[in-house]
Amino acid sequence: MAAAEVNQYRRTAYQTGTAAPKLPAVPEKELRKEKREQVLQARTAIEARVQEKRRAAKEFSALQVLAVLAAAAVLVAAAGFFIVQLSTQESSKNAIERLELEIQTVHHENVILQNLKNSSIDYEKVYTVATEEYGMTIPMKQQVVHYDQPSVEFVHKYGDIPR
Description:
This protein is 68% helix and 0% strand. The model is unreliable at 1-7 (pLDDT under 50). The N and C termini lie far apart (139 Å). It is mainly alpha-helical.
């Protein structure tokens, strides 16, 4: 009996209010047809909304396009900065190598000139001139004074010698 009451409520429509009269019963086929139409309309409306949302999701907004362009500009600027830094580093490296080669060349020239200078001094002649012309002699043991001096970079001409 409860099932019959439920069916009866499904097939009939009521008006709201306390004094509303009972509407006539609608046949079962018409209810099914109306229900199908309602379901079809609801489905069509939902599909239209889904299609609209999909279309909106596929389209880029102006803000999204602007953000992508800004990111691309930052990427290009970073790549350019990296290339400039790399070329600067490479040119600095080449300059350092040239300077190191120049230092080596100057050092070798200095060694050659020092050897030439040392080989040009005739120590026998210096000894002869010092002893015969200027009357210099080798100092005696008591004439030599040894003392410790702190490490300095220059010598005072008339500095004190400790006793």
